[in-house]
Amino acid sequence: MKRETAEEREIVREAQQRFKACQDWEGQARQRWNDDQKFAEGDSDNQYQWDTQQVVARQQDPNGARPCLTINKTRQHNLQILNDARQNKAGIEIRPTGDGATYDAAKIFEGVVRHIEYRSNAVEAYEAASRHQIYGGWGYWRILTEYVDHDSFDQDIKIQRVADPLSIYLDPDIEEFDGSDARYGFVFRDVPNERFKTEHPQWKDLVGSKALCDEGKTWDDGEHMRVAEYYRKREVPDTLYSLNDGTTILRSEMDGEILEQFDLEKPDRVRAERRTMRVVVEWFKIAGSRIVDRRTWPGKYIPLVRVIGEETVIDGKLDRKGHTRALKDPQRMYNFWSSAAVEHIALQGKSPYVAPVQAIEGYEQYWDNANRVNYSVLPYNGFDDEGKPIAAPQRQAPPQASTAYVSGMQAAAQELMMASGQYQAEMGAPSNERSGVAIQQRQRQGDNATYHYIDHLAQAIRFTGRILIDLIPKIYDVERVVKIMAENGEQQDVRIDPNGDKPVQKMVGGQPVSDEQLKAAQADPNLRDQVETIFNPNVGRYAVEADIGPAYATRRQEAFAALSDLLQRSPALASIAGDILFKAADFPMADEVAERIKRTIPPAVLGEGVSPQEQQLQQQLQQAQQAIQQLQGMLNEKGQQLASEHEGREDRHALDSYRAETDRMKAIGGLDPEAMRPVLRELIADVLGVHPMMLPAPAMPAQPGVGTPPNLPGMA
User: Fold this and answer.
1) 353 vs 366: CA distance, rounded Å
2) 609 phi and psi, to 5 degrees?
3) In which element (H, E) is residue 290 found?
């Protein structure tokens, strides 16, 4: 075991002080979190919803054990919020904000983030944190990096579930609700002794040692060694340069020859500069009171994401709570009234008949089994030995429930709904509302009462997106191929090139292409597989949003229903939108049907090939070219007539001018007909010796593609 340095001792001392501050701030809230979590998970076995002393007293009652029933209605109220959050997941949306960022690059960023979530099973991490938020008041997940394989230096990003939120402590001086401004944080975990010795053989003597911030107690329970992960932010002086092209760069981002070259070119490249503080996040693994591992975290945020239910500070004391806290007293009332009602009925007589002994003497075999066997007749003695009549056996009334207990349970159930804001219509039970609109209004009322839980989850997911777009350029820092995932689950490969000039570049066969060339390549089966997307995550700045809404599968079902209704109303749309309907369907072979229908739709409708506007322009151009050819023929004929009639110098000069104009018309023959029309009119008028206003407007042909010459004066 190596000797501890002065710097390491200072880091451990700092960690001890900061952990003590976290304990002092969160101690009471953590105890209440544990109580609320247990109450929400109460059942007949663990008896979490009953006070321990009450359970003992009722079970040891001298007159016999009394029931302690748990009818956990709180859990259903909590699950209503949790499952609503599952159906309306918040998705990370990325928007370009500057420095060369583009919409296409933002969509690729989203695809990379979505694939990280898919590969990490982030849904489970989000749901676990949401459950703890609703049940106890807060939850966590964390973000890690890990190597792709044992023989690779490439790393991937992972979103990891936190099963026990009490194992994490964050800076108590946080101002931002999502915790993005935290300066430090701790993660504790218990590692089996043998595993700790295997992972850190040089530190095996630490097993059983005194713990960090443990007030003299050991972390070793005989089987496990408690290890602390300590994150902290440290500010480092740096210089920020504003370049002439509008971009910015830190001096720390350059080194070696690049920095030397930059210093030489700085007078010509730099517009402004200023001193700044750069954030560095450091990570330490502390076992006992020794640092057994350390490294620099590549991001600028503490990678611990918290989800808060409700948080208040009253009289300088922190309190956090979830949905359970307000339901505890109504739930206890319901359990008490249920137990009392059962006890009341249980104490009532259960014998179906009351009879004098003399009346059933000799017929005991019938009366002993009267409550189990359906006899047709129950005989009894009507007279005694002296001939005196004996009272007949009498059937007793069955046990009756007390209306007081039933009313008490109804009141407790009503108070549970009042405290939660969730009423029968939202819980799926029958209610007074009968119309669909009335039921939706009552459900919306319940959603409004609990929406802050879903909104706080969305804020945490948005912060996760900020961490990821900060990490992605630093983790994917070498050229590699990564998977991206579309919203509908489709995956494709994207090549990361940190040295690319553009944020996104489309390539076909290794060559950059324009949008038109890309569309043509995607339509060509021979070139489709050669299309490649190059992505540089270092170019541009991006912002993160979290959109809350139904899952893609739910929206797909809604789209299918809406399109089906639309096509029923307008069957003609099936010829141009039938493929979209079947793309939204989720039954087998629907995609194949959609593809077949798509092949019958005209390319112009699909946005492939020539658009109707382009077709019209092509027809007009053909008409103009045909008209020009006919005009050239007539002009040549007129020129020959002029050459034979005028042989003088001035006439030859006019003829040369005419030929020059003719050549000019040949040169401009490919221009827009509308642009050439004034030139043609001026040329013809000059040749004929008349004012252009004397010429009639040229008549365009009636049939597309067929041209006829204008009706010129003096020409047949």
Assistant:
1) 12
2) 85, -155
3) strand 290-297
Q: Distance (Å, rounded) from C-alpha 230 to C-alpha 464?
A: 20
Q: How far is CA 56 from the centre of its chain?
A: 48
Distance of alpha carbon 204 from alpha carbon 197, whole angstroms: 5
Phi, psi of 580 (to 5 degrees): -65, -40
**Pairing of β 353-354 and β 491-496:** unpaired
Q: How far is CA 337 from CA 48, 63, 325, 412, in A?
A: 17, 20, 20, 8
Closest CA to 673 of 611, 616, 604, 610: 616
| Placement of tokens 């709904």 in the chain | 417
What the block records as the tokens of 565 is 């209704």
Name the range with the highest mean pLDDT among 96-110, 294-308, 644-658, 692-706.
294-308
**pTM metric for this prediction:** 0.71
For the stretch 600-613, pLDDT in tens is: 777 766 666 555 66
Segment (H or E) for 34:
helix 6-40
DSSP per residue, 123-140: HHHHHHHHHHHHHTSEEE
Nearest to 323, CA basis, from 451, 410, 414, 443: 451
Which of 294-298, 516-520, 664-668 is the least confident region? Answer: 664-668
Are residues 400 and 348 in contact, defined by beta-carbon separation less than 8 angstroms? yes
CA separation for the pair 288, 227 (Å, rounded): 7
* Residue 50 near residue 70 (C-beta atoms within 8 A): yes
* pLDDT > 50? residue 712: no
Q: Can you say how many angstroms the Cα of residue 464 is from the centroid of all Cα atoms in its chain?
A: 10
